[in-house]
Amino acid sequence: MTIDKTNTLAGIVGLTGLPHALITKLADLSGIQRIGKGSTLFREGERAHFVYVLVEGHISLISETAHNETIADFIGPGEIVLVPPALLELPYMVTANAMTDLLVVMIPARDFRQMAETELTLAVALNRMLAGHWRLLLRQLTQTKSWDADARLVQYLFDSAAAKEGAASFRLPGTKQDLAAHLGITPATLSRCLKRLEKLGVKTKKTQIQIEDVARLGRHSNRIGHAETKQSAYAQGNMQ
User: Fold this and answer.
1) Alpha carbon separation from 71 to 22, 29, 75, 111, 181 (Å, rounded)
2) Residue 229: predicted pLDDT
3) Domains annotated on the chain, with CATH
4) Mean of per-residue pLDDT scores for the chain
């Protein structure tokens, strides 16, 4: 089936609202490709040759050290994957792996960079998108440093639910082991956390998550997150 790249790009978060002529120009520069599950889009340390727009499927962004592997984030359909390396002409700081079969639009990094420097509406859209990413990154760093495993898991589940009240059901983008790596905990710790959350109406079956009351989970997340933040601030104050 032929994919209309212009319509596809027009529906991508961060590009919606751009002038049709600009979207068409981006589409004309781009290629589209299907990538199999388990493939690597790019590796840590490589230069960005393309800006990847994820149309279908999920990827994980993996940070590797000598001792462990951490999943920095999951990227889903409708998102642009790591714009900064293309704009700054710097190497990737993570590796991107396909967790499912993918459909991606690939915009040459050089052309994308030139358009970002000359097209005001695109520059404004990218500023907004990157500002949102920065806020999300800052929140994740705060949670990783000051929240315990239960708090991090509850917040992840609340954020992943499509609704903010009532029941919700969704599938994890990868395995439970992938989720543990993303949260910075061991698979065994994740299992214990999920067991404790059963009393809050959270049920799991393989990678399927069911939440009886999302609002209830959100209130619990706010309580424990606030408590963890106060404890962290108190501890830092005693150290000074």
Assistant:
1) 34, 31, 11, 29, 5
2) 46
3) 5-138 (2.60.120.10), 147-239 (1.10.10.10)
4) 86
